[in-house]
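Troubleshooting entry. The earlier prediction with magnesium ion gave an output that would not parse, so I re-checked the input for stray whitespace and re-submitted. Clean input:
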Amino acid sequence: LGSSLRGTLDDLRGKSRLSEEDIEDIVKEIQRSLLQADVDVSLVQELSDNIETRALDEEPPAGTTPRDWVLRIVYEELVEMVGESTDLPLEEQTIMLAGLYGSGKTTTAAKMAWWFSTKGLRPAIIQTDTDRPGAYDQSKEMADRAEVDFYGDPDEDDPVTIAREGLEATKDADVRIVDTAGRDGLNQELIDQIERIEQAVNPDRNLLVLDAAMGQSAKSQAADFEASIGIDGVVITKLDGTAKGGGALAAVNETDSTIAFLGSGETVKDIERFEPSGFISRLLGMGDLKQLTERVERAMEETGEEEEDWDPEDMMEGAFTLKDMRKQMQTMNNMGPLDQVMDMIPGLGGGLMDQLPDDAMDVTQERMQDFDVIMDSMTEAEMENPRVVGQSRTERIARGSGKPEERVRELLDQHRQMEQMLKQFQGMGDGDMERMMKQ
Ligand code: GDP
Ligand code: MG
């Protein structure tokens, strides 16, 4: 799906004007991807209308192609639809989690606690689920794994009492995360219980935890929780599965809130803050749209100035220097892994990527930071032509950067591998490409 959207966009390359049909084609592809990702029909319709109206009404700014401009509009409207990340100041606060049984509340409580601990705050989990046998043990075990404070009482059967005592017991913590019980469906009993806990705890924020596979039913569920306790943000869990979590957008819309966190696994570290561009890419199944649209921003900012920014398509031409690699690393910082970057280059589909050695893509954050420091210690000539770097220069660069020689060699290896890979691509004619894809 993402590839057909990319195909449609590629067809617009070089056009000096976009027709109504061109825009309809793009909108149709986006609609297909979003509906497939469980986004509510009315949200998709609203988005489509906005894109069509703007794409037809607005003129691309000077120096911007119609294709890039329409991409920009698409991106802006998608950001508008998915919203910004829920504001979570790094300060003392109490957060209550609500949601149906199995949505991932208990797991999310531990994940969020871990996340806050990485921000230098002291979190505590208060476990108020007295309905499910094993809730206490599960929660305690996860809190231990996250290495955070925990309060629960397996002998007490009133959740409100536990909540009250939990607040008292976790007074030293900065962030209290109150986990609650769920039900298979939302019934009056659950609503009553959660309202009573809410009153006792008086949280700063109520977050609704939704399974990514929730689909369309997220909407009515969200409306009910909103009516009873009020929802300030949404957490989407299980994004490591096939579901894209588009259903949660209806919940966000219904509660007039935003998305706070994304969960993508069963361990306490499988959590990330919501961030619109990554989520949009996921929804569309397409490489980072944001990066593509940044061209427009640059064109608007730097009127006529010589462009020094790195473009994935430039990699396909000419020599690949360490400077190129560095620019690419910088871009990747906002963009995700290299395989996604390659995925954005027209004609390089997923099939081709599978044939590359795994470690060609293995540039971890830590190594990238080291590489950056190492490159600071290299001369202009070395950056332009890393082949001149022999043993003695390697030693000098290692000393200058304070990094081990091994790291310097890794950098040079990495560069050589990437250079080789690109040469392969450059050497390929269209026929070769097709043959490889078919294999
Ligand atoms: P609760 O009933 O809302 O408290 O849900 P739990 O936190 O107990 O989660 C229910 C099940 O989903 C458990 O087996 C969790 O391990 C699993 N789970 C929760 N979050 C995720 C996630 O992000 N990815 C995956 N793969 N499993 C998850
Ligand atoms: Mg639970």
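This one parsed fine. Confidence is low (pLDDT under 50) at residues 303-310.
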